[in-house]
Write a structure and sequence with these properties.
Strand order of the largest sheet: 2-1-6-7-8-9
Structural class: alpha+beta
Helix content: 25-40%
Number of helices: 12
Strand content: 15-25%
């Protein structure tokens, strides 16, 4: 392919969709090894890298705790500890500690979205009662801040209320009874029941997180590292914009929906899987109202009579069933929606890991906020190459290196790419480890040959 044509195609790929409001920052304090307040920026493509147990998962588990608390069908209290995304049985398991000594009885989670709105919620352990919400600060998109504390008195609440609208302010001051109440993992204001509905709504909006934050939290698509074994049939599920729980149970029904509605994303899915060298086609067969079968092309490339050469996904390599939720999530997500991928490279051949970079970047260019937790230097190098080739703007990428100091505290080093795709210094657990392993082998082989 001529250089001019490659440059033209790279320019076309690098055109990003118009930005949509989505999660732009996450901060955590007092959670496991994140003892001090740790904030990471979320870009259209955010890469989390570092050694095992360095804190990569922890920074994403905090907002997932909020998500699973909001999604459950009953009120679990301030935080649902044992849910589909994060599983604990006691608050002590998630609070920061040093050895057997607990360092804090509270944790704070902050979520910011790209229109400037933010919410910070602080939780505290109550003796014998688990965690409770003790304070919440909301920041509106215009920069106005509002902090409310559990148990605040009427006079304390009135001093906090905005006076920018004099008429509403005067009406609010006539309310005799105002209380701070918990709504799942957040706090809100509640005046006496006899007051007009508009006043109840107004006061609730003053304390409640913005609609953009709520929809962004509930819209998180979580593809965990453990994605289950391939099955002969899959239970049907609803197909929409939000996916409560983890994403794997929705995959078969989403593909079936694309097939029935002749959605172009079914062909895009096949093309993406072919690029990875796994298969070239995915189809579904409806068994009944409760079950769907997934069938895939037996060959990695399409050919003569290939359209009918399909087998159950349970009869092909394990890598395909592990990669399929990743591919479907990236295609199903809408602009602004956050897709959190834990080790998308798992069970993939090195060639497929390198090719995965383009597929992840394509989703980011559509405006999806893709967060990738990875141990794959090939995936990172693929992203660097796409930046250097002009297929991806460097300001759309954030890379956060996670490590632990001698006290077990997570430290995060964030890197900005330059136009050549360089991150700066690589962490020792990537390139230096690979080079050291190669050097060890070459030294051993050379020594063996010398002895001969």
């Amino acid at each position: 392919m001529a250089k001019a044509e490659r440059t033209k195609k790279a320019s076309q790929r690098s055109t990003q969709a118009p930005p949509a409001v989505g999660i732009s920052a996450i901060a955590v304090e007092g959670y496991k090894s994140l003892r001090q307040r740790t904030e990471v920026a979320i870009r259209p493509l955010t890469l989390l890298a570092g050694a095992n147990s360095s804190g990569k998962s922890s920074v994403m588990q905090a907002p997932l705790l909020l998500k699973q608390t909001l999604e459950t069908s009953y009120d679990p209290g301030a935080l649902l500890l044992d849910g589909p995304h994060v599983r604990f049985t006691a608050a002590e398991q998630l609070l920061s500690r040093s050895g057997k000594r607990r360092l804090s009885d509270s944790l704070a989670v902050t979520v910011g979205v790209s229109d400037g709105a933010r919410v910070e919620v602080r939780f505290k352990q109550r003796p014998g009662m688990g965690l409770d919400v003790v304070e919440m600060t909301t920041v509106r998109s215009d920069g106005k801040r509002f902090t409310v504390r559990a148990g605040a008195t009427r006079d304390e609440i009135l001093r906090l209320l905005s006076t920018e609208e004099a008429v509403k302010s005067k009406i609010i001051k006539t309310v005799q009874h105002i209380s701070v109440v918990r709504e799942r993992c957040f706090l809100t204001l509640r005046p006496e029941a006899s007051w007009a509905a508009f006043l109840v709504t107004l006061m609730a909006e003053l304390g409640r997180p913005s609609p953009a934050i709520m929809s962004s939290l509930l819209g998180i698509i979580h593809v965990p590292a453990l994605r289950g074994n391939p099955m002969r049939t899959y239970r049907t599920s609803a197909v929409g914009d939000a996916f409560p729980g983890t994403f794997e149970p929705y995959v078969a029904s989403i593909i079936h929906h694309w097939q029935v509605t002749k959605d172009i994303r079914q062909k895009q899915l096949g093309a993406a899987l072919e690029k990875l060298g796994l298969t070239w086609k995915v189809e579904t067969a409806r068994i009944d109202d409760t079950q769907v079968e997934l069938r895939v092309g037996r060959l990695r490339r399409g050919g003569r009579r290939g359209a009918h050469d399909l087998v159950s996904i349970a009869d092909v390599g394990f890598g395909l069933s592990q990669c399929l939720p990743v591919m479907v999530a990236l295609l199903a997500a809408r602009p602004g929606q956050l897709v959190y991928l834990e080790e998308p490279e798992i069970h993939l051949h090195p060639r497929a890991q390198a090719a995965l970079a383009q597929i992840v970047v394509d989703a980011a260019l559509r405006g999806v906020h893709v967060v990738v937790e990875t141990h794959s230097s090939l995936l990172l190098l693929g992203v660097q190459s796409l930046v250097a080739e002009g297929a991806l703007s460097s300001d759309l990428v954030a890379l956060h290196w996670f490590s632990q100091n001698d006290d077990g505290v997570t430290e995060v080093r964030s890197a900005e790419l330059d136009d050549a795709g360089a991150f700066g210094d690589w962490p020792e657990d990537f390139d230096e480890v690979a080079l050291a392993a190669q050097s060890r082998y070459l030294d051993a082989a050379e020594a063996r040959m010398a002895r001969r």
